[in-house]
Each structure stands twice: as structure tokens, then as C-alpha cells.
Design goal:
Chain lengths: 118, 141
């Protein structure tokens, strides 16, 4: 009985916390300091093959702002966090329009990065 | 009278639950290893707007990024001198509008280079604004 309860607990923890985009391949850029990103409403990924994803679904740049607006809904300021996961070698010509789309949709952007190794 | 012999009990530990325990331990450590909270850097950018060529420009600090270098107002600055130089330029500017730092990047600038310098701008107290040249598609009949 205890085993079953434990497994169910783990199952729901995974469902609640695991990101839909965990299957995507990208390498984060490294900076000196990072802080916990907190709860987010949407996650945007540019993977190592330069493909664009919103909440795990491949999308086009033209549809991104509307998709983020839909995901954020009427969330109040401070609860409109959008995670931005960009592969570290992605070029500005690709990621700057994405940043612009998040800004246009009114998202609070958090760049997902890793801490520099000494 | 014969002395009573001590009986030795050969009790085995029940091993039927060992597999369950091992499985639960594996799942537990997998969850701990894979569900790590995301960490990063929060960045607030002003909402984007299209700037007209005729609109008079306010004098803001301009940071230009190339693939390997960074320039402040057209002058190449070493990474270790970047924050002190920018901080000196922002001295006396109190209003957020005055602390705007316009970031212009060449198309080939990699993300790790861009995030390094925009993080330094944040550190120096600048308000980042990304300036991007609009690409207009012209159809030839």
C-alpha cells in the first residue's frame, strides 16, 4: 500500500513539475550568477537546430506573440513569466525577433542559463 | 539427565520486497536528478515599437555587439572595463528613460556573447533596449 502511494506521489510530482519541452536539445549559455526562475506560464525554446518551440510545440516566428498572449491570458503583472531557452550558439538574427515577440506579448522574460564553471 | 542443546535458528530475511525497494529508490533518485528548477537571468525590456526615421532621437548610450567584441558609443571596450565605463557614463542619470542603453547587434552575434554583455549592462544599472533593423520584403512584379 505504501509503495503504491509513493509511486503515485512521484507520478503527480513529475506531472506537475516536468516541462513539456524537456525532450528538446539545447545548450544553455553560461553567466556568473543565476537566480531561480520561479513559476512560469510559457516556455520558448530555440534548439540546437535553430527550430522555435512554444511550450514544446514547434511554431513560427509570426505566430509566437499571439501564442504567448494566449498562454499568458489575463495573468497580472509579476505572474507573466516566460522562460526563454536559447541554444548558446544561436545567432542574433534568429533570437532577437523572438525576444521582441515576448516583449510585444507583455511577457516577463527570464533567460534560462547556467552558472559559469570556474 | 541429558543437557538441553541450544537450537540454532536459520532465519532468512524476507527478500520478496527487495525488488520493490530497489525500484522505488531508482525512481526517487531519477526524479531528484531530472526535475531541477530552472535558473537564469530576468530581463525587463520595454515593449517594442517601430521607430520612424524622421523621429528625433534622444541621446542614449549605444552598445554595439559584433561576433567577438563590444563597443560603447563606437569605441571598442575590453570585457573587464565594460562595467566601469558604462557605470561612469550612467552617473547622474536617475530617471529610467535616461538610463536606456540601446543594444545593436550584428546578425551573426552568438547568444552567449549577447547575454554576457546584456547581463553586464544590467549590472551597471542600464535599461536595455534592443534595436533591430526591420527587414522589409519587397516583391518585384
Amino acid at each position: 500500500m505504501g509503495d503504491i502511494a509513493f509511486n503515485l506521489l512521484i507520478f503527480f510530482v513529475i506531472l506537475a513539475r516536468a516541462n513539456d519541452d524537456s525532450f528538446l536539445q539545447w545548450e544553455p549559455a553560461a553567466v556568473k550568477t543565476v537566480k531561480p526562475a520561479g513559476e512560469s506560464r510559457a516556455s520558448v525554446v530555440i534548439d540546437s537546430k535553430n527550430r522555435l518551440f512554444l511550450n514544446g510545440q514547434e511554431t513560427h516566428l509570426g505566430d509566437l506573440a499571439d501564442g504567448i498572449r494566449e498562454a499568458l491570458g489575463n495573468a497580472p503583472p509579476g505572474k507573466r513569466t516566460v522562460l526563454l531557452k536559447v541554444h548558446n550558439e544561436t545567432q542574433a538574427v534568429r533570437f532577437e525577433p523572438v525576444i521582441e515577440a515576448i516583449s510585444e506579448a507583455g511577457g516577463d522574460m527570464v533567460h534560462i542559463l547556467e552558472k559559469e564553471r570556474m | 539427565m541429558k543437557p538441553r542443546r541450544a537450537t540454532k535458528l536459520m532465519a532468512e530475511l524476507p527478500s520478496s520486497a527487495t525488488g520493490d525497494i530497489a525500484f522505488n529508490l531508482i525512481v526517487f533518485f531519477l526524479v531528484c536528478a531530472s526535475v531541477q528548477p530552472d535558473k537564469g537571468h530576468r530581463q525587463t525590456l520595454p515593449r517594442s515599437e517601430t521607430q520612424n526615421e524622421q523621429t528625433p532621437k534622444i541621446e542614449n548610450i549605444e552598445v554595439t555587439l559584433t561576433r567577438t567584441a563590444a563597443m560603447i558609443d563606437g569605441e571598442v571596450v575590453e570585457p573587464r572595463k565594460f562595467v566601469p565605463k558604462l557605470t561612469a557614463l550612467l552617473v547622474g542619470k536617475v530617471r529610467p528613460g535616461d538610463r536606456v542603453v540601446v543594444v545593436k547587434s550584428k546578425p551573426e552575434v552568438p547568444y552567449h556573447h549577447w547575454i554576457k554583455y546584456t547581463t553586464l549592462i544590467d549590472e551597471a544599472g542600464g535599461v536595455i533596449t534592443v534595436l533591430r533593423e526591420e527587414e522589409e520584403e519587397v516583391r518585384v512584379p
